[in-house]
Amino acid sequence: MPIDRAEVARIAELARLEFLEGELDDFTAQFQRILDHIEKLKEVDVVGVEPTSHAARGEGLAGSTLRADAARGSIPVAEALSNAPDPGNDHFRVPRMI
Fold this sequence. Notes:
Layout: H1 5-14, H2 21-41, H3 77-81
């Protein structure tokens, strides 16, 4: 699927991207390589391959790197604030952002 410079410029405009002239030429070449790679992936035989929503999940959570979620208590306030550079009165003090 060939893509030309004008089409890349149109896509960039839709995506609110700005390119200099040389950058547009470079990006067109890069975009073409991406599209060529996608076309190559379409050649892979995936008949009989079950779709997955998460590569790390097996049946349920068995064999997964994810741990079971369990409620537990928080650390004490004094311990949480022990390394704070400027602890307040039982809270983290941060610079004003307004």
